Amino acid sequence: MVMARSLVFCALFALATAANRNLFCFNCYEMIDIIEQTWLIDEPATKTRLDNWCDAVYGHLGDMAAQCKKWIDDDLENIVDKLNNGWSAEAICKDLHLCD
């Protein structure tokens, strides 16, 4: 019985972990899409749109919106460089460890 409970727990944990990775993966694709749509047109507007996106998606989760904004502050130039060098959103998000 204990073994069965352990297996169920492990299975549920694996599903939850995969779901979280998929959630962050999808969100990474959304952020890259915002960057691709606005960066060359209006760089400051890109940052504002991304900050607003962080508030909308993570604002109800404690300090997650602030962490999202910090991540953008830290990695935005790197993401733009990768996009300019022909990287796909999938490759960038995988490189950032947000997708498998």
Describe this structure in words.
- InterPro entries: SapB_2, Saposin-like, SaposinB_dom.
- Pfam families: SapB_2.
- This is Saposin B-type domain-containing protein.
- It comes from Pristionchus pacificus (Parasitic nematode worm).
- By secondary structure, this protein is mainly alpha-helical.
- The chain has one domain (22-95).
- The chain is 81% helix and 0% strand.
- It contains 4 helices and no strands.
- Helix 1 (2-38) runs antiparallel to helix 2 (43-58).
- The longest helix has 37 residues, at 2-38.
- It is globular, with a radius of gyration of 17 Å.
- Mean pLDDT is 79; it is low at 1-21.
State the distance separating the first and last CA atoms: 33 Å
Structural class per helix/strand content?
mainly alpha
Characterize the main sheet: none
- Mean pLDDT over all positions: 79
Round the Cα radius of gyration to an integer and report it: 17 Å
Count the helices. How many?
Answer: 4
Q: In sequence order, what are the helices and strands, one letter per element?
A: HHHH
Q: What number of structural domains do the residues give?
A: 1
How many E strands?
0
| Low-pLDDT ranges | 1-21
The percent range for strand residues is under 5%
Q: What share of residues is helical?
A: over 70%
Overall form? globular
Q: Quick recap of the structure?
A:
Pfam families: SapB_2. By secondary structure, this protein is mainly alpha-helical. It has one domain (22-95).
